[in-house]
Amino acid sequence: MAVLAGKVAVITGGSTGIGFATARAFLDAGAQVFITGRRKEALDTAVAELGSGVTGVVCDVSAPTELDALYRAVSEQAGGIDVLVANAGIGVSAPLGEATEEAIDSMLATNVKGTIFTFQRALPHLNPGASVILTGSTAATRPDPGLEIYGSTKAAVRSLARGWARGARERGFRVNVVSPGGTRTPGLLELVPADVLEQAEADVPLGRLADPAEIAAVTTFLASDAASYVNGAEFFADGGYAQV
User: Fold this and answer.
1) Taking every annotated instance into account, which residue ranges of this chain make up the domain Ketoreductase (predicted)?
2) What is the H or E stretch that residue 173 is in?
3) Which conformational region is residue 156 in: left (phi greater than 0), alpha (psi within -120 to 50 degrees), or beta?
4) What is the spatial distance between Cα 206 and Cα 101, in angstroms, rounded to a whole number?
5) pLDDT by residue (tens digit) across 127-169?
6) What torsion, rounded to 10 degrees, do the Cα atoms 223, 227, 231, 235 define?
């Protein structure tokens, strides 16, 4: 069903994982999609695989000038933005007592600063009734060992959404969060050892990790007019991991 027909969507971190799956779901739902990534080669590969209807823009969300270039490109090619998915994020395992300044800075720069500027720089381009969706994480409420700092950056994302959602009346947009649990993305498979993944699956009430398409389905709902009265909410797509 083309629930996003005629809508223009921007997805940061759209070249792989959940962002890529979201781009595919949005295209299937009829949207015109712009995706970003920091690595041109990976971005070009994603665009080729996704096919028509998608445009790739190289962009590091921690750099406001690159976000400005992104939104200029969107404005010139498609006009205003109906759906903004601030998905770009970095996860680094930083066990207690071993966290480095580099690891902390990288997560804060992308997950917190990047989310702030992704939204802030988009404001002049958001169409009335726009849906803004931030990617959170169950690590914000149930951080596994080594993911405490990552979880704190995602807790910041949840707090930002609460505050920004209060501007809906004046600005004409709505802001929500999708918080995935363990999801089989390249990033997770690189970050977490196989034995830890097996234990993670065992800890999920559904007994498995998510497929990225399952997270994308929740994001697609929040992007659509079916969620027109949903604002300031956090939707957990975690198989029950952080719920029971």
Assistant:
1) 7-185
2) strand 173-180
3) alpha
4) 36
5) 999 999 999 999 999 988 888 999 999 999 999 999 999 988 8
6) -80
Considering only CA atoms, which of 1, 16, 24 is closest in space to residue 224? 1
Number of residues assigned to the chain? 244
- Sign, CA torsion 164/166/168/173: positive
Cα–Cα dist 99/243, whole Å: 28
* Domains present along the chain, CATH in parentheses: 8-237 (3.40.50.720)
Task: Read off the tokens for 229.
Answer: 């009265």
Cα torsion at 194, 204, 13, 152 (round to 10°)?
Answer: -100
Please answer whether residues 236 and 154 qualify as being in contact, where contact means their C-beta atoms are separated by less than 8 angstroms. Answer: no
> Rounded to an integer, what distance in angstroms lies between the CA atom of residue 215 and that of residue 238?
9
Residue 121 CA to residue 223 CA, distance in Å, equals 19
Cα separation, 162 vs 132, whole angstroms: 12
Active site residues: 150
